[in-house]
Protein backbone atom coordinates (compact mmCIF):
# COMPACT_ATOMS: atom_id res chain seq x y z
CA UNK A 1 0.00 0.00 0.00
CA UNK A 2 2.85 2.35 0.88
CA UNK A 3 4.68 1.58 -2.37
CA UNK A 4 1.50 2.11 -4.36
CA UNK A 5 0.90 5.47 -2.70
CA UNK A 6 4.52 6.48 -3.24
CA UNK A 7 4.33 5.50 -6.90
CA UNK A 8 1.20 7.59 -7.41
CA UNK A 9 2.79 10.62 -5.76
CA UNK A 10 6.02 10.17 -7.69
CA UNK A 11 4.22 9.68 -10.98
CA UNK A 12 2.02 12.68 -10.31
CA UNK A 13 5.06 14.88 -9.67
CA UNK A 14 6.86 13.51 -12.70
CA UNK A 15 3.96 14.02 -15.07
CA UNK A 16 3.48 17.57 -13.87
CA UNK A 17 7.11 18.41 -14.61
CA UNK A 18 6.90 16.65 -17.97
CA UNK A 19 3.91 18.77 -18.92
CA UNK A 20 5.83 21.94 -18.05
CA UNK A 21 9.02 20.80 -19.75
CA UNK A 22 8.27 18.45 -22.63
CA UNK A 23 4.69 19.27 -23.51
CA UNK A 24 4.04 22.95 -23.20
CA UNK A 25 2.09 22.95 -26.41
CA UNK A 26 0.16 19.83 -25.35
CA UNK A 27 -1.08 21.18 -22.03
CA UNK A 28 -4.74 20.90 -22.87
CA UNK A 29 -4.46 17.52 -24.54
CA UNK A 30 -2.34 15.89 -21.87
CA UNK A 31 -5.04 16.24 -19.26
CA UNK A 32 -7.15 13.66 -21.08
CA UNK A 33 -4.36 11.17 -21.81
CA UNK A 34 -4.17 8.18 -19.43
CA UNK A 35 -0.85 7.64 -17.63
CA UNK A 36 -0.21 4.39 -19.52
CA UNK A 37 0.00 6.33 -22.80
CA UNK A 38 2.72 8.74 -21.68
CA UNK A 39 5.52 6.40 -22.74
CA UNK A 40 4.50 6.53 -26.41
CA UNK A 41 4.26 10.31 -26.64
CA UNK A 42 7.02 12.28 -28.44
CA UNK A 43 8.99 14.84 -26.51
CA UNK A 44 7.68 17.63 -28.73
CA UNK A 45 5.65 18.23 -31.85
CA UNK A 46 7.66 18.30 -35.11
CA UNK A 47 8.39 21.53 -36.97
CA UNK A 48 5.98 22.49 -39.75
CA UNK A 49 6.18 20.15 -42.72
CA UNK A 50 8.09 17.41 -40.88
CA UNK A 51 6.54 14.02 -40.19
CA UNK A 52 7.90 12.35 -37.03
CA UNK A 53 9.16 8.78 -37.29
CA UNK A 54 8.78 7.05 -33.94
CA UNK A 55 9.36 3.55 -35.36
CA UNK A 56 12.57 3.91 -37.40
CA UNK A 57 13.97 7.38 -36.69
CA UNK A 58 17.17 8.55 -38.32
CA UNK A 59 20.25 8.53 -36.10
CA UNK A 60 22.61 11.53 -36.30
CA UNK A 61 25.34 10.52 -33.85
CA UNK A 62 28.04 9.59 -36.38
CA UNK A 63 30.06 12.74 -35.70
CA UNK A 64 30.56 11.85 -32.04
CA UNK A 65 31.72 8.33 -32.89
CA UNK A 66 34.12 9.51 -35.61
CA UNK A 67 35.64 12.22 -33.40
CA UNK A 68 36.11 9.73 -30.56
CA UNK A 69 37.53 7.05 -32.89
CA UNK A 70 40.20 9.52 -34.00
CA UNK A 71 40.71 11.41 -30.76
CA UNK A 72 41.15 8.55 -28.28
CA UNK A 73 43.81 6.62 -30.29
CA UNK A 74 45.62 9.88 -31.01
CA UNK A 75 45.69 10.75 -27.32
CA UNK A 76 46.96 7.28 -26.42
CA UNK A 77 49.73 7.44 -29.03
CA UNK A 78 50.87 10.87 -27.89
CA UNK A 79 50.66 9.80 -24.25
CA UNK A 80 52.79 6.74 -25.02
CA UNK A 81 55.48 8.91 -26.59
CA UNK A 82 55.49 11.21 -23.58
CA UNK A 83 55.72 8.34 -21.11
CA UNK A 84 58.50 6.69 -23.14
CA UNK A 85 60.41 9.95 -23.28
CA UNK A 86 60.13 10.47 -19.54
CA UNK A 87 60.88 6.87 -18.52
CA UNK A 88 63.61 5.90 -20.99
CA UNK A 89 65.15 9.11 -22.32
CA UNK A 90 64.96 11.76 -19.64
CA UNK A 91 64.47 9.29 -16.78
CA UNK A 92 62.88 12.03 -14.73
CA UNK A 93 59.26 11.74 -13.57
CA UNK A 94 57.86 14.87 -11.93
CA UNK A 95 54.51 16.08 -10.64
CA UNK A 96 53.68 17.49 -14.06
CA UNK A 97 53.74 13.96 -15.48
CA UNK A 98 51.33 12.69 -12.84
CA UNK A 99 48.91 15.52 -13.56
CA UNK A 100 49.10 14.61 -17.25
CA UNK A 101 48.02 11.03 -16.49
CA UNK A 102 45.06 12.39 -14.54
CA UNK A 103 44.13 14.63 -17.48
CA UNK A 104 44.42 11.73 -19.93
CA UNK A 105 42.13 9.50 -17.86
CA UNK A 106 39.65 12.36 -17.41
CA UNK A 107 39.52 13.11 -21.15
CA UNK A 108 39.02 9.48 -22.12
CA UNK A 109 36.34 9.05 -19.44
CA UNK A 110 34.44 12.14 -20.58
CA UNK A 111 34.59 11.19 -24.26
CA UNK A 112 33.58 7.60 -23.52
CA UNK A 113 30.58 8.77 -21.51
CA UNK A 114 29.46 10.99 -24.39
CA UNK A 115 29.81 8.12 -26.86
CA UNK A 116 27.84 5.80 -24.57
CA UNK A 117 25.09 8.38 -24.23
CA UNK A 118 24.77 8.77 -28.00
CA UNK A 119 25.20 5.13 -29.02
CA UNK A 120 23.25 3.33 -26.31
CA UNK A 121 19.53 3.83 -26.08
CA UNK A 122 17.35 5.78 -28.46
CA UNK A 123 17.41 9.33 -27.18
CA UNK A 124 20.57 11.30 -27.93
CA UNK A 125 21.43 11.52 -31.59
CA UNK A 126 17.78 11.76 -32.64
CA UNK A 127 15.53 14.73 -33.19
CA UNK A 128 13.31 15.68 -30.27
CA UNK A 129 10.11 14.85 -32.12
CA UNK A 130 11.40 11.33 -32.92
CA UNK A 131 12.01 10.47 -29.25
CA UNK A 132 9.30 9.34 -26.86
CA UNK A 133 9.19 9.47 -23.08
CA UNK A 134 9.52 5.69 -23.10
CA UNK A 135 12.91 6.07 -24.81
CA UNK A 136 14.19 7.92 -21.76
CA UNK A 137 15.10 4.77 -19.86
CA UNK A 138 16.79 4.81 -16.49
CA UNK A 139 20.29 4.07 -17.96
CA UNK A 140 19.88 6.99 -20.37
CA UNK A 141 18.72 9.31 -17.60
CA UNK A 142 21.47 8.15 -15.25
CA UNK A 143 24.20 8.69 -17.86
CA UNK A 144 22.71 12.11 -18.64
CA UNK A 145 22.92 13.09 -14.99
CA UNK A 146 26.46 11.75 -14.56
CA UNK A 147 27.60 13.65 -17.64
CA UNK A 148 25.89 16.86 -16.51
CA UNK A 149 27.48 16.63 -13.07
CA UNK A 150 30.91 15.36 -14.08
CA UNK A 151 31.61 17.54 -17.12
CA UNK A 152 32.80 20.57 -15.14
CA UNK A 153 35.22 18.78 -12.78
CA UNK A 154 36.55 16.56 -15.57
CA UNK A 155 37.17 19.57 -17.83
CA UNK A 156 39.12 21.15 -14.97
CA UNK A 157 41.22 18.00 -14.61
CA UNK A 158 41.94 18.06 -18.36
CA UNK A 159 43.11 21.67 -18.10
CA UNK A 160 45.15 20.78 -15.01
CA UNK A 161 47.95 19.32 -17.14
CA UNK A 162 48.14 22.55 -19.16
CA UNK A 163 48.36 24.67 -16.02
CA UNK A 164 50.97 22.27 -14.64
CA UNK A 165 52.99 22.39 -17.86
CA UNK A 166 53.08 26.18 -17.84
CA UNK A 167 53.96 26.24 -14.15
CA UNK A 168 56.88 23.84 -14.53
CA UNK A 169 58.25 25.25 -17.76
CA UNK A 170 58.24 28.84 -16.51
CA UNK A 171 58.63 28.23 -12.79
CA UNK A 172 61.59 30.63 -12.40
CA UNK A 173 59.18 33.45 -13.30
CA UNK A 174 57.34 34.44 -10.13
CA UNK A 175 54.44 36.18 -11.87
CA UNK A 176 53.78 33.08 -14.01
CA UNK A 177 53.51 30.94 -10.88
CA UNK A 178 51.04 33.40 -9.37
CA UNK A 179 48.92 33.54 -12.54
CA UNK A 180 48.78 29.75 -12.75
CA UNK A 181 47.68 29.37 -9.13
CA UNK A 182 45.01 32.05 -9.56
CA UNK A 183 43.71 30.43 -12.75
CA UNK A 184 43.58 27.00 -11.15
CA UNK A 185 41.78 28.24 -8.05
CA UNK A 186 39.15 30.35 -9.82
CA UNK A 187 38.35 27.75 -12.48
CA UNK A 188 38.13 24.98 -9.87
CA UNK A 189 35.75 27.09 -7.79
CA UNK A 190 33.34 27.51 -10.70
CA UNK A 191 33.47 23.94 -12.03
CA UNK A 192 32.94 22.44 -8.58
CA UNK A 193 30.14 24.88 -7.81
CA UNK A 194 28.36 24.05 -11.07
CA UNK A 195 28.62 20.33 -10.31
CA UNK A 196 27.12 20.77 -6.83
CA UNK A 197 24.28 22.93 -8.18
CA UNK A 198 23.54 20.37 -10.90
CA UNK A 199 23.29 17.57 -8.35
CA UNK A 200 20.99 19.70 -6.23
CA UNK A 201 18.50 20.60 -8.96
CA UNK A 202 18.82 17.77 -11.51
CA UNK A 203 19.24 14.83 -9.17
CA UNK A 204 16.43 12.28 -8.72
CA UNK A 205 13.37 13.57 -6.87
CA UNK A 206 11.72 11.25 -4.38
CA UNK A 207 13.70 8.05 -4.97
CA UNK A 208 16.10 6.28 -7.30
CA UNK A 209 13.73 4.77 -9.86
CA UNK A 210 13.25 5.91 -13.44
CA UNK A 211 10.42 8.30 -12.61
CA UNK A 212 12.54 9.98 -9.94
CA UNK A 213 15.41 10.61 -12.38
CA UNK A 214 12.96 11.80 -15.02
CA UNK A 215 11.34 14.15 -12.51
CA UNK A 216 14.70 15.66 -11.61
CA UNK A 217 15.97 16.17 -15.16
CA UNK A 218 12.58 17.46 -16.35
CA UNK A 219 12.11 19.89 -13.46
CA UNK A 220 11.79 23.58 -14.23
CA UNK A 221 15.15 24.38 -12.63
CA UNK A 222 16.97 21.75 -14.68
CA UNK A 223 15.04 21.43 -17.93
CA UNK A 224 13.34 24.76 -18.48
CA UNK A 225 15.30 27.21 -20.61
CA UNK A 226 14.91 29.90 -17.96
CA UNK A 227 15.99 27.54 -15.17
CA UNK A 228 19.18 27.83 -13.17
CA UNK A 229 20.92 24.84 -14.79
CA UNK A 230 20.53 25.94 -18.44
CA UNK A 231 21.77 29.40 -17.45
CA UNK A 232 24.65 27.78 -15.58
CA UNK A 233 25.47 25.80 -18.71
CA UNK A 234 25.84 29.01 -20.71
CA UNK A 235 28.06 30.49 -18.00
CA UNK A 236 30.18 27.33 -18.04
CA UNK A 237 30.67 27.76 -21.79
CA UNK A 238 31.84 31.33 -21.22
CA UNK A 239 34.18 30.20 -18.44
CA UNK A 240 35.67 27.57 -20.78
CA UNK A 241 36.49 30.25 -23.34
CA UNK A 242 38.03 32.53 -20.71
CA UNK A 243 40.17 29.72 -19.27
CA UNK A 244 41.38 28.60 -22.71
CA UNK A 245 42.34 32.15 -23.68
CA UNK A 246 44.02 32.54 -20.29
CA UNK A 247 46.04 29.37 -20.89
CA UNK A 248 47.03 30.69 -24.32
CA UNK A 249 48.08 34.18 -23.26
CA UNK A 250 50.19 33.27 -20.22
CA UNK A 251 52.90 31.22 -22.00
CA UNK A 252 52.92 33.27 -25.21
CA UNK A 253 53.47 36.49 -23.27
CA UNK A 254 56.32 34.88 -21.33
CA UNK A 255 57.99 33.30 -24.36
CA UNK A 256 58.09 36.60 -26.24
CA UNK A 257 60.42 38.03 -23.57
CA UNK A 258 62.83 35.09 -23.37
CA UNK A 259 66.44 35.37 -24.52
CA UNK A 260 66.22 32.43 -26.93
CA UNK A 261 67.46 31.80 -30.42
CA UNK A 262 64.80 32.64 -32.98
CA UNK A 263 64.41 29.05 -34.18
CA UNK A 264 63.99 27.72 -30.66
CA UNK A 265 61.55 30.47 -29.73
CA UNK A 266 59.41 29.71 -32.79
CA UNK A 267 59.29 26.04 -31.79
CA UNK A 268 58.13 26.87 -28.27
CA UNK A 269 55.60 29.35 -29.66
CA UNK A 270 54.18 26.67 -31.93
CA UNK A 271 53.65 24.23 -29.07
CA UNK A 272 51.58 26.62 -27.00
CA UNK A 273 49.93 28.23 -30.02
CA UNK A 274 48.22 24.89 -30.60
CA UNK A 275 46.01 25.95 -27.71
CA UNK A 276 44.30 28.36 -30.11
CA UNK A 277 42.52 25.31 -31.50
CA UNK A 278 41.04 24.66 -28.06
CA UNK A 279 39.85 28.28 -27.93
CA UNK A 280 38.05 27.86 -31.25
CA UNK A 281 36.40 24.65 -30.03
CA UNK A 282 35.28 26.39 -26.82
CA UNK A 283 33.63 29.13 -28.85
CA UNK A 284 31.83 26.53 -30.96
CA UNK A 285 30.74 24.71 -27.81
CA UNK A 286 29.19 27.91 -26.48
CA UNK A 287 27.43 28.40 -29.80
CA UNK A 288 25.89 24.92 -29.68
CA UNK A 289 24.87 25.44 -26.06
CA UNK A 290 22.98 28.59 -26.98
CA UNK A 291 21.15 26.83 -29.83
CA UNK A 292 19.14 24.92 -27.25
CA UNK A 293 17.67 28.00 -25.63
CA UNK A 294 14.91 30.11 -27.15
CA UNK A 295 13.36 31.85 -24.17
CA UNK A 296 10.69 33.72 -26.08
CA UNK A 297 9.79 30.93 -28.50
CA UNK A 298 6.77 28.77 -27.57
CA UNK A 299 7.74 25.99 -30.01
CA UNK A 300 9.85 23.57 -28.05
CA UNK A 301 11.02 21.66 -31.13
CA UNK A 302 13.38 24.53 -31.89
CA UNK A 303 15.42 23.58 -28.83
CA UNK A 304 15.95 20.01 -30.14
CA UNK A 305 18.29 19.18 -27.24
CA UNK A 306 18.86 15.53 -28.08
CA UNK A 307 20.00 16.50 -31.59
CA UNK A 308 22.07 19.63 -30.84
CA UNK A 309 24.01 17.77 -28.16
CA UNK A 310 25.58 15.65 -30.92
CA UNK A 311 27.38 18.71 -32.31
CA UNK A 312 28.27 19.80 -28.79
CA UNK A 313 29.77 16.38 -27.98
CA UNK A 314 31.70 16.29 -31.27
CA UNK A 315 33.29 19.69 -30.76
CA UNK A 316 34.05 19.00 -27.10
CA UNK A 317 35.80 15.75 -28.05
CA UNK A 318 38.13 17.72 -30.32
CA UNK A 319 38.82 20.22 -27.55
CA UNK A 320 39.62 17.51 -25.01
CA UNK A 321 41.93 15.82 -27.51
CA UNK A 322 43.84 19.04 -28.15
CA UNK A 323 44.13 19.63 -24.41
CA UNK A 324 45.81 16.25 -23.95
CA UNK A 325 48.06 16.50 -27.01
CA UNK A 326 49.67 19.85 -26.17
CA UNK A 327 51.67 18.56 -23.15
CA UNK A 328 52.90 15.68 -25.35
CA UNK A 329 54.31 17.74 -28.21
CA UNK A 330 57.72 18.52 -26.73
CA UNK A 331 58.45 14.92 -25.60
CA UNK A 332 57.30 13.68 -29.01
CA UNK A 333 59.71 16.09 -30.69
CA UNK A 334 62.45 14.79 -28.40
CA UNK A 335 61.76 11.20 -29.47
CA UNK A 336 61.68 12.23 -33.13
CA UNK A 337 65.08 13.91 -32.80
CA UNK A 338 66.43 10.89 -30.98
CA UNK A 339 65.13 8.46 -33.61
CA UNK A 340 66.23 10.60 -36.56
CA UNK A 341 69.75 10.89 -35.13
CA UNK A 342 70.11 7.12 -34.87
CA UNK A 343 68.50 6.60 -38.27
CA UNK A 344 70.90 9.00 -39.97
CA UNK A 345 73.84 7.33 -38.26
CA UNK A 346 72.66 3.93 -39.45
CA UNK A 347 72.13 5.13 -43.03
CA UNK A 348 75.57 6.72 -43.17
CA UNK A 349 77.20 3.62 -41.78
CA UNK A 350 75.26 1.18 -43.94
CA UNK A 351 75.38 2.86 -47.31
CA UNK A 352 78.32 5.22 -47.14
CA UNK A 353 80.65 3.14 -45.03
CA UNK A 354 81.38 5.78 -42.48
CA UNK A 355 79.76 7.51 -39.55
CA UNK A 356 79.68 11.25 -39.59
CA UNK A 357 81.81 12.56 -36.75
CA UNK A 358 81.93 16.22 -37.64
CA UNK A 359 78.38 17.05 -36.68
CA UNK A 360 78.98 18.04 -33.08
CA UNK A 361 75.37 19.03 -32.48
CA UNK A 362 74.02 15.64 -33.57
CA UNK A 363 76.56 13.71 -31.53
CA UNK A 364 76.02 15.74 -28.39
CA UNK A 365 72.27 15.29 -28.82
CA UNK A 366 72.77 11.52 -29.22
CA UNK A 367 74.83 11.33 -26.03
CA UNK A 368 72.13 13.28 -24.20
CA UNK A 369 69.39 10.96 -25.42
CA UNK A 370 71.16 7.62 -24.84
CA UNK A 371 68.86 5.77 -22.39
CA UNK A 372 71.51 3.54 -20.77
CA UNK A 373 74.06 6.26 -20.17
CA UNK A 374 72.74 6.71 -16.62
CA UNK A 375 70.74 4.85 -14.03
CA UNK A 376 67.01 5.22 -13.52
CA UNK A 377 67.55 7.47 -10.52
CA UNK A 378 70.23 9.59 -12.19
CA UNK A 379 68.64 12.23 -14.42
CA UNK A 380 70.84 14.04 -16.87
CA UNK A 381 72.68 16.95 -15.24
CA UNK A 382 71.91 18.95 -18.37
CA UNK A 383 68.18 18.56 -17.76
CA UNK A 384 67.81 19.38 -14.09
CA UNK A 385 64.65 21.45 -14.59
CA UNK A 386 61.42 20.62 -16.32
CA UNK A 387 61.81 23.52 -18.74
CA UNK A 388 65.12 22.16 -20.03
CA UNK A 389 63.78 18.62 -20.19
CA UNK A 390 60.63 19.43 -22.14
CA UNK A 391 61.45 22.41 -24.27
CA UNK A 392 65.22 22.85 -23.95
CA UNK A 393 64.66 26.36 -22.63
CA UNK A 394 67.84 27.43 -20.84
CA UNK A 395 67.18 28.30 -17.23
CA UNK A 396 69.29 31.40 -17.65
CA UNK A 397 66.87 32.65 -20.26
CA UNK A 398 64.06 32.32 -17.78
CA UNK A 399 65.90 33.70 -14.80
CA UNK A 400 67.04 36.70 -16.76
CA UNK A 401 63.38 37.67 -17.09
CA UNK A 402 62.51 37.13 -13.43
From TrEMBL:
Keywords: Membrane, Transmembrane, Transmembrane helix. Residues 82-333 form the Rhodopsin domain. It holds the Pfam family Fung_rhodopsin. Residues 358-380 are annotated as: Disordered. The keyword Kinase does not apply. It is found in: Membrane. Its main location: membrane. The chain crosses the membrane at residues 21-39, 59-79, 100-125, 145-167, 174-192, 228-254, 266-288. One of its GO terms (cellular component) is membrane. The keyword Plastid does not apply. It is a multi-pass membrane protein. Belongs to the SAT4 family. This is Rhodopsin domain-containing protein. It comes from Sclerotinia nivalis. The lineage of its organism: Eukaryota, Fungi, Dikarya, Ascomycota, Pezizomycotina.
Amino acid sequence: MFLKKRFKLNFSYCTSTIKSFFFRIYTMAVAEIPPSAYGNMPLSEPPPGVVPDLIHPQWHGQGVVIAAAIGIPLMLIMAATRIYSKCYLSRKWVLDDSSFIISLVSAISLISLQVALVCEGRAYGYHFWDVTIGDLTKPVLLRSLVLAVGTGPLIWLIKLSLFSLIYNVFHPLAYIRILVVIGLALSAAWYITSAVVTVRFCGPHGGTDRLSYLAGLASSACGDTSGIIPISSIITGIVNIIVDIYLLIIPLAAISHLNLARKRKIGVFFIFLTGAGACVMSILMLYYRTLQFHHSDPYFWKHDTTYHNVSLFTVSTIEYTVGVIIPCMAPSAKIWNHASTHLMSYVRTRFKGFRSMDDSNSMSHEREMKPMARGPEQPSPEMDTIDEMLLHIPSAALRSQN
